[in-house]
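Lab notes, practical 5.
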Amino acid sequence: MAQDSATKSVGKPPARYEDDFYTWLLEQVALLRAGRLTEIDALNVAEELSDVAKSEYRSLESAFAVLAQHLLKWDHQPERRSRSWFLTMREQRRRVGKILRDNPGLKARLAEAITDGYADGRDRALSESQLADDAFPETCPYELADLMERTFDMEAP
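Output from the prediction step:
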């Protein structure tokens, strides 16, 4: 591989993926921008791009987990409802919206992300609430509209 401007060191061999990930990334970006496609470490670049896609999905799943966690607590512990729970749900709704706006291709995986996120959110809600395991449904009882649009009354139950 020819020397890359990202390292700014003459005569040094290119960074290896296994040895210096950060420098390797910078070099791959510089090669791409320079159009030097034959010098790209294609297999590792493909692996990293795949990991980025997985990370975007996990961000969506995580937002649904937090949202489900607080919805379950809201629905099953009305005496403990708080502004904090409400604001957390509002924040996670915004987060879901931003993720989907930036990654419209994830819309095809919404049902999966809700299902996967719910499982984690249910466990978190169980842990925080100290309720019995059967207090919350094992499968997600919420539709996308419930998760994203339901209104909440901050008054006493």
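Observations recorded by the TA: Helices lie at 21-33, 42-76, 83-102, 110-129, 144-149. Residues 74 and 87 are 12 Å apart (CA to CA).
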